[in-house]
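Input record, target 12 of the design panel.
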């Protein structure tokens, strides 16, 4: 590992030069392998020319080759979906680069969230035995909740188990208060129908 200690200004200049050399070398290697086709650029051409460059970019951002591959694959998938709307090859490359950066940011946010997550205290968690002691009606409600779509289930659980207001649920789920209200209404209807059928 390089020593960037000593004078802070000198150390930062050395670090900057080292980064420039390293990334410049990688850029030169990647650029040397790119040959412009003698016809309009296709998505396949772009994939062949830029895939490893984009993977390297993602590795530099997320520091994990497997995750970087996933980020790049998602970026190319998005590019494929939007290919017909792009102006030219430069626009496609810009789209791809932005998609890789945004995908990498998402990965890093998820990592940060996972690192910061503190599981709730489990001492009062319901055991299978306590659920078994619920009345048949309560068991049916718990089972029916499991069949609801994610958002409907979240809204009902936050409202009736978490005792949150519509505003608090909206903030927790990232939707409007109106959406919380309509989702809760639809969820209750779906829950009722499910329980009636079973």
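The sequence produced for target 12 reads:
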């Amino acid at each position: 590992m390089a020593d960037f200690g000593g004078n802070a200004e000198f150390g930062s200049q050395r670090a900057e030069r080292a980064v420039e050399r390293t990334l410049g070398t990688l850029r030169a290697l990647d650029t040397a392998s790119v040959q412009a086709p003698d016809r309009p650029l296709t998505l396949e051409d772009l994939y062949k020319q830029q895939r490893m460059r984009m993977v390297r970019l993602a590795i530099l951002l997320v520091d994990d080759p497997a995750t970087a591959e996933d980020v790049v694959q998602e970026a190319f998938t998005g590019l494929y979906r939007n290919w017909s709307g792009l102006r030219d090859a430069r626009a496609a490359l810009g789209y791809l680069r932005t998609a890789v950066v945004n995908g990498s940011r998402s990965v890093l946010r998820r990592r940060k969230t996972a690192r910061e997550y503190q599981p709730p205290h489990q001492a009062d968690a319901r055991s299978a035995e306590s659920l078994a002691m619920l009345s048949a009606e309560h068991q049916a409600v718990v089972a029916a909740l499991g069949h609801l779509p994610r958002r409907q289930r979240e809204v009902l659980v936050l409202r009736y188990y978490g005792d949150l207001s519509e505003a608090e649920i909206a903030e927790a789920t990232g939707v409007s208060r109106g959406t919380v209200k309509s989702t809760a209404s639809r969820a209750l209807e779906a829950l009722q129908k499910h329980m009636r059928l079973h």
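The radius of gyration is 26 Å.
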